[in-house]
Amino acid sequence: MTAVLRSAQDRSMLWDGLDEVPVDFGPTVLTIGVFDGLHRGHRSLIAEARRIADQRGLPLVMVTFDPHPARVLGLPKDTATLCSVGQRAELAAAAGVDAVCVLRFTRELAGLSPEDFASVCLADRLDARAVVVGENFTFGARAAGNVDTLHEIGGELGFSVTAVPLLPAGDAPCSSTYTRQRLREGDLAAATQALGRPHRVDGYRVGSRVDLTEDTALPPPGRYAAVVNGRADVVDVVGAGTLRVENSHPGDGPVTVHFHTRAEDKS
Ligand SMILES: Cc1cc2nc3c(=O)[nH]c(=O)nc-3n(C[C@H](O)[C@H](O)[C@H](O)COP(=O)(O)O)c2cc1C
Ligand SMILES: Nc1ncnc2c1ncn2[C@@H]1O[C@H](COP(=O)(O)OP(=O)(O)OP(=O)(O)O)[C@@H](O)[C@H]1O
Question: Which Pfam families does the record cross-reference, listed alphabetically (predicted)?
Fold first, then answer.
């Protein structure tokens, strides 16, 4: 196996599109999906994919889409992010992925049939020998491809398919949608449980105001106990994309906030 993405600092194996995959990279095991938040369900999928990759002595590559397909297709779905693509790659590396290939999800990509997508994006440059997805995985124009379709196509293109059962979170499957819903309701305990860590948002601070770097999922307006740039603090969610932080850590600049629990609301 060639070099691997071993740490958050090592971005050498983060490929922006198929063109950045080294031509001599060789055969791979792939796992595919959006993976927003890299929640516990995603990590259980990656653990299984890692096991298969080790069995075969092949590198494990995560193929992920950006922006979220539903955003590009204009579907009525909450697509506020649970983490940036960079964080997705770092969390994937920590979970055992060797390389991440980010496919720009465009209307052109969305128009590919399941067969064409598998041929161009999985078999050609990435030379997939095994593909590992959750049992609810769909792909291809009009989301017409599913795990059964992928099995059939894999038979022709030379890769095996493993469909992993969905890890639950309470009564529902653990999912990005579930996690966003719990956050939106202010159920930080359930969101933290699904993510396996406190929800993180990044922004830029000027005075006490923090503007978020991207359209990130937030709990409802109110006051929260949080960790801001590594130190315990109190944060007010004041509206879409904006927070206010206490003045305990003065200074303008980049801010990382981890939400812990709801605090007493301001009166
Ligand atoms: C080539 C391609 C075309 C797609 N076209 C559609 C589509 O027309 N409608 C849709 O709802 N989703 C579409 N999707 C998104 C998939 O249904 C699915 O969300 C995506 O493959 C990520 O899988 P995941 O949701 O399991 O992470 C498409 C995906 C791919 C790869
Ligand atoms: N709970 C889970 N357990 C195992 N695999 C999962 C789980 N949830 C999703 N997957 C798989 O992870 C990959 C990425 O899926 P995706 O990011 O769409 O998951 P999701 O959390 O269900 O997202 P959304 O809620 O937006 O549909 C897919 O192969 C999917 O089948």
Answer: FAD_syn
